[in-house]
DNA sequence: TCTGGGGTCCTAGGACCC
DNA sequence: TCTGGGGTCCTAGGACCC
């Protein structure tokens, strides 16, 4: 038995925690660079704001309707997410943090009233973090997703809680659920399934699993079996080690100068190094990519990547920066308007095990480099954020993203701490 | 003027091994 | 006329997730 706890309209709800006056009002949160709509409050959904809509195209219309807009504030969302997960861990030590706003809990050993437990989870998270959540209970993860969806729609017996095993209208619910709304089925597979006459979750649950595996893959077969009540996706209680690290951004404006791109890639490589070291990993490969905007009509689209295989795995930001700039040298074409770039570390290894190299001339990371990196990380940790870096980052700042509607970092910056006045 | 940023898994095919 | 049978590893591409 598994519970899926999912925060309602997470980013929008986070913005309300420190601005309660926004309760009941339509809110949207934008992607980096204030590009697209990536989260909407229920009120904004009701007004017809589409998920993924380019904000510059629809902002006039919706701001006239009173929609409040926010740039994304991941410092805030990440901190609130951590707090929610801490609360949930009190209810079951066996949990899988599935995403920034979702968590699966193993309740198979819970003997009490499950709906009551769900209601207590909803109440506690609300009271301790200020965030609304919904709970779906079911024998499989995929069905827990369905149950959560029903709970959010207000069908649950306990308000925001729905126990699938107690739900009298299972078949009707699955029959009314479009197949592409099932977890693990998106538009492409949905279209192909419809061609096969499988248009609803019920039809998928009753489809022949072997045929699904043959036509699609074992992934869809599992989804179908899960819908039919057979658990195929175990809880991942221990998060597996990360396989790759990526840092990439769209620029605040188009870049044409190589030095500007170098500045951006320096910052990205630095950030990648921080992520690498936080997880106690090294990388053997540094890949760098740039591209122009696919939406720019004037010029033809250019996208390219360069991959550098290092002689020794490294966790040294200096090495990452040098490799990234070297890679850029291979793919930079003058005269283009670059819109985005990134650094990818696709081949990670644990920090402490290192494969030796038989014919090696270059030195790998040494104790001195390790100490330097630890020192760098210590200096750059909050509150002295971004205290020390590499000089090539100073060659330009035009790449930095637009964030015209950002709320304060109320939980992660002393200067942004809310002040409560008492009388 | 302006269109996000991360990740994962699976499969097929090619290269290699004995 | 005719040329085996079993493996592994790696990568690219395509799908999915939030």
Structure description:
It is built from 14 helices and 13 strands. With 423 residues, the chain is α+β, with helices and mostly antiparallel strands. It has 3 domains: 2-166, Reverse transcriptase/Diguanylate cyclase domain (Alpha-Beta Plaits, 2-Layer Sandwich); 170-227, Orthogonal Bundle (DNA polymerase, domain 1), CATH 1.10.150; 245-395, 2-Layer Sandwich (Dna Ligase, domain 1). Strands 5-6-1-7-8 form a 5-stranded mixed beta sheet. Strands 9, 10, 11, 12 and 13 form a 5-stranded antiparallel beta sheet that branches. Helix 4 packs antiparallel against helix 5, helix 10 (209-215) packs antiparallel against helix 11 and helix 12 (258-278) packs antiparallel against helix 13 (317-331). The two termini are 49 Å apart. The protein binds a DNA duplex (18 and 18 nucleotides) through residues 30-36, 38, 52-57, 59, 72, 98-102, 183-186, 188-189, 216-220, 242-250, 253-254, 293-295, 339-340, 342, 401-402.
List the helices and strands and how they pair.
Layout: E1 2-7, H1 10-17, E2 27-30, E3 37-40, H2 42-47, H3 55-64, E4 68-71, H4 74-89, E5 95-99, E6 102-106, H5 114-129, E7 133-138, H6 141-152, E8 161-163, H7 170-176, H8 187-195, H9 201-205, H10 209-215, H11 218-227, E9 245-255, H12 258-278, E10 281-292, E11 303-314, H13 317-331, E12 338-345, E13 348-350, H14 367-380
Helix pairs in contact: 4-5, 10-11, 12-13
The protein binds a DNA duplex (18 and 18 nucleotides) through helix 3, helix 11, strand 9 and strand 12.
């Amino acid at each position: 038995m598994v519970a899926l706890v999912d925060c309602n309209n997470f980013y929008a709800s986070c913005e309300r925690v420190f601005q309660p006056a926004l309760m009941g009002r339509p809110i949207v949160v934008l992607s980096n660079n204030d590009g697209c709509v990536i989260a909407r409050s229920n009120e904004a959904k009701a007004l017809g704001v589409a998920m993924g809509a380019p904000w510059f195209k629809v902002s006039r219309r919706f701001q006239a309707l009173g929609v409040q807009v926010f740039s994304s504030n991941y410092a805030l969302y990440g901190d609130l997410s951590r707090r929610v997960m801490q609360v949930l861990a009190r209810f079951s030590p066996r949990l899988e943090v599935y995403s920034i706003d979702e968590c699966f809990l193993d309740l198979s050993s819970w003997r009490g009233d499950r709906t009551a437990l769900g209601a207590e989870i909803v109440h506690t998270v609300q009271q301790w973090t200020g965030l609304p959540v919904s709970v779906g209970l079911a024998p499989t993860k995929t069905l827990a997703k369905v149950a959560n969806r029903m709970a959010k729609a207000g069908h649950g017996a306990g308000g925001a809680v729905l126990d699938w095993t107690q739900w009298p209208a299972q078949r009707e619910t699955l029959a009314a659920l479009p197949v592409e709304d099932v977890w693990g089925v998106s538009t492409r597979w949905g279209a192909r399934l419809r061609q096969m006459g499988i248009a609803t979750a019920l039809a998928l649950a009753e489809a022949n699993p072997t045929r699904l595996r043959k036509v699609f893959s074992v992934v869809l077969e599992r989804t179908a079996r899960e819908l039919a009540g057979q658990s195929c996706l175990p809880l991942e209680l221990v998060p597996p080690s990360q396989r790759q690290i990526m840092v990439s951004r769209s620029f605040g404006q188009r870049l044409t100068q190589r030095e500007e791109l170098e500045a951006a890639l320096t910052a990205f490589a630095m950030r990648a190094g921080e992520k690498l070291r936080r997880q106690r990993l090294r990388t053997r490969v540094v890949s760098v990519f740039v591209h122009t905007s696919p939406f720019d009509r004037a010029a033809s689209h250019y996208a390219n990547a360069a991959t550098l295989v290092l002689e020794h795995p490294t966790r040294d930001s200096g090495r990452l920066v040098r490799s990234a700039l070297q890679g850029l040298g291979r793919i930079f074409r003058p005269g283009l308007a670059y819109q985005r770039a990134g650094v990818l570390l696709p081949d990670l290894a644990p920090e402490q095990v290192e494969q030796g190299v038989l014919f090696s001339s270059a030195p790998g990371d040494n104790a001195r480099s390790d100490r330097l990196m630890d020192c760098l990380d210590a200096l750059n940790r909050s509150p002295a954020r971004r205290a020390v870096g590499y000089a090539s980052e100073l060659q330009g700042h035009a790449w930095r993203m637009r964030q015209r509607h950002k709320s304060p970092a109320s939980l992660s910056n002393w200067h942004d701490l809310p002040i409560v006045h008492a009388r």
